[in-house]
Amino acid sequence: MSYKDTINLPKTKFSMKGNLIQKEPEFLKKWEKENLYAQIRKARAGAKKFILHDGPPYPTGDLHIGTGLNKILKDIIVRFYTMRGYDAPYIPGWDCHGLPIEHRVMQEIGSKAESMEKIEIRQKCKKYAEKFVKVQMKQFKALGVSGDWESSYLTFTPQYETGIIEVFGKLVEKGYIYRRLKPIHWCMRCKTALAEAELEYYDETSPSIYVNFKLIDKPKDIFDGIEDEDVYILIWTTTPWTLPANLAIALHPDFKYTAVRYKNPKTQKNEVTILADNLVDSIMNVLKVDAFERLGTSTGGSLEGIKYKHIIMDREGTVVLADYVTLSDGTGCVHTAPGHGLEDYLTGLKYDLPVISPVDESGIFTEEAGDFAKQSITEGNKSISEKLDELGLLIHIDQLSHSYPHCWRCKEPVIFRATEQWFVNIEHLNLRENVLKEIEKTNWIPSWGEVRLSNMLKERPDWCISRQRSWGVPIPAFYCTNCKESILDVKVIYHVRDMFSKYGADSWFYKDTKEFLPNGTKCPNCNSTDFEKENDIFDVWFESGSSHHAVLNKREELSFPADIYLEGSDQHRGWFQLSLLPSVAAWGCAPFKTVLTHGFVVDEKGEKMSKSLGNFISVGDALKELGGDILRLWTSSMEYRNEMNVSRSIILRMSDSYRRIRNTFRYLLGNLHDFDSKKDSVEYTQLWEIDRWALHKTEKLRASVTSAYESFQFHRVYHNIHNFCAVEMSSFYFDILKDRLYTFSKKSLERRAAQTVLHRINSVLVRLLAPVLVYTSEEVWMEMTHEDDNAACVHLADWPTPNEQYIDEELDDKWDKIIKIRTDVARELEKMRAAKHVGNSLEAAVDLYTDDVDLLNFLREYERDFPMIFIVSDVTICEEPPDSANEGEIFNKLFIRVKVSENNKCERCWNYREEVGKIEKYPTLCNRCAEVIETAELQN
């Protein structure tokens, strides 16, 4: 008999190499053919629901690695809750309308767009969106994201569009919607209004000018030192182009203001100007004025109502009061143009000032700007400054670099420009206060999200929901062609909804106006029946923010509010906030119970990823090189609540961790090939102590990983499992177990005990990893025997159940000490290997000594087990300190001597035993192997 043939070597089809790129598409085909998602839904039917509502990305190109990470995080959560027994349907979605798509399409069309009808542009936008929905859907699926892909929600479908109209109708019904000429952020290149969430801030260089406005009313009675002379008020601005729209100068009512006589550095004439008292010295220094005279001081409140002559326009202005005036920059006297700033606008309302905005949609001055008409605002900055200099009113000019809002799509600077727009009134029916209360009720992860969003809501203005573009859902408003009165009626809105339900929102652009109006509709102002449709569309954020109704309330398998929203931290300004506002306004509650945010994905240097910088990583490229499970494992390893550094090499390094986990499964499966859990399992009381320790560690892992999933700390899931596989199992338990698994009798109690534990470890581990390694876990599941679980797929299996019997903290403490002793011994063994005295550790024998009574008793308790634990042939506990022993580094009272074994090597198990060569029938075997062979021969 060949002794080699009697070794119980591992057997498994589960290969060491993952070959993920080849295997994963095959699993996808199998799952789609079997309609696995439907099977999961059927298996969980009637269970308590858990709803993660998907925030819709834009289908504008290949997926960014950050978008892939976002979807993987969502999928991990949904899969975990599904395995915990919840009914957790997942409906993915795309935000198919809006400027990002229209911008790309307009770039492709070029100059031809000017001669095209809106409906033609819309059709091209739709084709573009459909194209990249397919591209991104394929990539999401390849990432292993499970969902109802065939029923994904797309914002250009009639079902979704009617949901938007219903939310709008509810807001109109409750009085939240109004239309007004009001300054908003305006992109001159995209020619549309922009929301705060659509702004990005970059440094911009602007002219910094100090300008004198000449007072008509001389405030002699306020400042005693003023004589019969011209008096000015000094303002500072970085937007000279807004000066034609100036109507007022704002002072703080409580600040002290001083009249100063000085020599104008430009005209060399003595002049008097008024500015904030605290800023006199610093401003005079900026103006390079060495000598000046203070003529008296008074509060800003005393100057209210004083008139001044406009510097370049033929009109008068008024000094007004405002609490927002600061002394941090400028002169304490704020140039106020209600058509070009929100605070200016609010001040204008208070003082009944008109709204003047002499700039068109392209940033060109209109005739209302007088001599500057037809100039761009950039040209106006220069020409207005030159005109003021010519008039002797420009006291100083410089350049200032400062953070300035830019359009998120074209990256060009934006302006504040007054136009007629539709708004949601944030103050109506205490909406702001109600929203802040809902924020307090919501569970925020991380917790600082609550403070961040609350602060944003406390400061935010009314929401401008109209856009001057083609690709989106039209605002269902009408205008009387006779008196120009706007018509916003709930009955009309729901009639439009019914039209969109039948024909889609495209119908707005090709059907007659009368078809969208109920019979008998008349203008409430003049009784005319002739109307024209609104040309503006909804802000794309209003569309996506309506998903709580258009999706959650419209789909039978979902529920409102959702259990969780999960997006990047930028969505505090975007989707989180702009879903919250309409939901609270329309239905009185937040659309979510929990909000989880993740940080941005940046490159290794911490820089934002972009194709132009060459640091962009697409999901498509990463999938081709690594496969979905590596990307999923990398995602789980991230502390995603912070900014995340990523590069190709960082993700590639995750392959090593994957390999360790995969090899753990390979060891488990290979050693369970002949194990039937129903027939061969060993009772807990019959297990070896080290086996019970392994079960304790497995149970602790199950508990810690479950807790980590529940708290959405997936990096803890990764680190706990990786440490369990690489350290506790592979480097310790599995290493020690090989001798028992390979060389003991195949059906021996000792080997079956080990297999019983391996079976439990495998059963728990494959389930714990199923939400992360979706493909590998399924591959493991297919190789397992399922006597105790007949689920056809790991993703139909239940979460591992706890077993309190396995918890033994006292045992864990003992084995923690054993592991430390083993570490000290291993260090000495390594010295012997380095000196080439031994090769395999089984060639060695170990002597241990200590004068610590407690430690000595402990060593004696495990003397018989130490050869197995240290993987050496013999261990002796010495009464006296052995010669040339080395002191342990962990246990400084432990002395260790490693020597070459004097015994002969067993041919079968490779242990060096005293009895080898003394057994007549089996001269090359040790006692244990001789018994195994003799038993096998008898059975044969």
From TrEMBL:
Residues annotated to bind ATP: K611
Transmembrane regions: none
Alphabetized CDD domains for the sequence: Anticodon_Ia_Ile_BEm, IleRS_core
Binding site for Zn(2+): C906, C909, C926, C929
GO process annotations (BP): isoleucyl-tRNA aminoacylation
The organism's place on the tree of life at top rank: Bacteria
InterPro entries, alphabetized: aa-tRNA-synth_I_CS (IPR001412), aa-tRNA-synth_Ia (IPR002300), Anticodon_Ile_BEm (IPR033708), Ile-tRNA-ligase (IPR002301), Ile-tRNA-ligase_type1 (IPR023585), Ile-tRNA_ligase (IPR050081), M/V/L/I-tRNA-synth_anticd-bd (IPR013155), Rossmann-like_a/b/a_fold (IPR014729)
Subcellular location: Cytoplasm
Essential cofactor(s): Zn(2+)
Catalyzed chemical reaction(s): tRNA(Ile) + L-isoleucine + ATP = L-isoleucyl-tRNA(Ile) + AMP + diphosphate
Alphabetized Gene3D superfamilies for the sequence: 1.10.730.20, HUPs, Ile-tRNA synthetase CP2 domain-like, Valyl/Leucyl/Isoleucyl-tRNA synthetase, editing domain
SUPFAM superfamilies for the chain: Anticodon-binding domain of a subclass of class I aminoacyl-tRNA synthetases, Nucleotidylyl transferase, ValRS/IleRS/LeuRS editing domain
Residue ranges annotated for the Zinc finger FPG/IleRS-type domain, each copy included: 905-932
Positions of short motif 'HIGH' region: 57-67
An MF annotation (GO) of this entry: aminoacyl-tRNA deacylase activity
Main location: cytoplasm
One family name in Pfam for this protein: Anticodon_1
Domain named Aminoacyl-tRNA synthetase class Ia: residues: 27-647
Keyword terms of this UniProt record: Aminoacyl-tRNA synthetase, ATP-binding, Cytoplasm, Ligase, Metal-binding, Nucleotide-binding, Protein biosynthesis, Zinc
Record-listed E.C. numbers: 6.1.1.5
Complex formation: Monomer.
Role of this protein: Catalyzes the attachment of isoleucine to tRNA(Ile). As IleRS can inadvertently accommodate and process structurally similar amino acids such as valine, to avoid such errors it has two additional distinct tRNA(Ile)-dependent editing activities. One activity is designated as 'pretransfer' editing and involves the hydrolysis of activated Val-AMP. The other activity is designated 'posttransfer' editing and involves deacylation of mischarged Val-tRNA(Ile).
Family to which the UniProt record says this protein belongs: Belongs to the class-I aminoacyl-tRNA synthetase family. IleS type 1 subfamily.
PANTHER family per the UniProt record, alphabetical: ISOLEUCINE--TRNA LIGASE, MITOCHONDRIAL, SOLEUCYL-TRNA SYNTHETASE
The protein's name: Isoleucine--tRNA ligase
Source organism of the structure: Candidatus Scalindua rubra
